[in-house]
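Hi V.,

You were right to ask for the full record rather than a summary. Here it is.
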Amino acid sequence: MSMRAKTFQAAIVSLAALLPASAHAEGFDTEHIFGFMIGTDVGSVGEREFQTETTGRFGRSGGTYRALGQEFELEFVPVKNFRIEVGSTFASHLISGVPGLDDQRRLSWQGASVDFRYRFLDRETAPFGLTFATEVHAHRADETTAEPVRSFGTEFRLAFDRELVPDRVIAAFNLIYEPEWTRVVGSSAMERDSTAGAALGVLAQVRPGFLLGGEARYLRKYEGIGLEELAGQALFVGPTAYFQLSKRSRLTASWSIQAWGRPAGSTASLDLVNFDRHQARLVFGVNF
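Predicted structure:
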């Protein structure tokens, strides 16, 4: 087992031990229990939440690559089955000796986003839950290269979830499509690319307020927003844990490793040109 995996495992055990023994979970609320995926729940009418999402991405095709994104978000549920989220993100990059990327050591405000989710089916009254989500973001620093850019992108997700064992085991499935338009500052050329994929996650309630499981994501990167030319593909797998810290606060921790990948036209077993080797996410939220 790698040092990162051992550290993650130790952190999970330690946090689980700190959970209050009296914590009580009344069924599942899948809105925030996954790390790199989403569930179909959107919250109750009038609910308001503040959330911080820290995402780390590590390892490319050579050299040193570390990227950290810190997003601050506010969530509102104005009407039944509909949620709005607005966010602002700061990014830190340390890039040295990575083929195809300029060396960077930069901390910057990356941009802002707005996310809309609408739940079409409630799994309490239907065979499964179904939610459509779309996020629109504008960035001034490239997520991968850290270069100054003018970037606009949209993420579309179709989420399904279902309890496999009532109040014990929950499974979710996401379909993903992310088109993006990017222009490097000082250049008139507009770059267009897109990512499409699917994700599957399963979590089990180990004890009230503590869920443990894993997520698997298969992603394909394309040149062009219409999925015209495949640039590369990757499969990410890893553990996810959810902690109900108190009646109003929660914490989700997730880590993924690229288990398989391949750049277009290559026989490599990993795609470290278009994707990262490791990804980690920590999400803390509180109702107010």
